[in-house]
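Late entry, evening session. Most of the bench is empty. Finally got around to the prediction I had been postponing all week. Sequence below, unchanged from the version circulated by S.P.
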Amino acid sequence: MPSPRLYPVSMRLEGRPCLVVGGGEVAVRKVRGLLAAGARVRVVSPAFPRRPAGLVWARRRFRAADVRGAALVFACTDDPATNRRVALACRARAIPVNVADAPDLCSFQVPSVVRRGPLLLSISTGGASPALARRLRSRVARLLAEGYAALAAEIGRLRRRALRELPDPATRRRLLQRLAGAGVLAQLERRGLPAARRTLARLWSEAVR
């Protein structure tokens, strides 16, 4: 069966309720990721090995009503029947759900990610091979210089400034394209972050003349 065609999206979960059903290592990884995104996380499981700060733990088996109000749900138990019940409960309420090791029950897949400050790169195989996605993530991480994070933050700062100070849409568009252009990246890769920042400053000066 071919992998599904997925639409990539990055969700804002800060302050939103998310549910993880299960208490194994997969559940622990999902909890860590959700907490890192600022979500309000609740776990439903008879056991859970570690309880990070901010986690709410319901020490019992899953009930269909547990999914009510959740922005996102992960089913990570070692019982396929329970995972299926979680998926069906979410489907009935149109709640996005990811079921470990059961791509056909998932309404979304979690990619492997490389984070560098505000820069986020995701790699997905559509559920075909999470192990391959993780291996590719490691390769991409080695290729991605740390300076890219600072560069992304600097371009973001200039973009916000352009939205405030440059009223002409065409001027803004040309500037933003140049800020992320090959010349800036070449400066970063060949001469380092200070040189890239000088190029950004020059491009800004040219745009506001």
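Two things to note before I forget:
Residues 17-110 form a domain with the Rossmann fold fold (CATH 3.40.50.720).
The longest strand covers residues 17-21.
Will write this up properly tomorrow.
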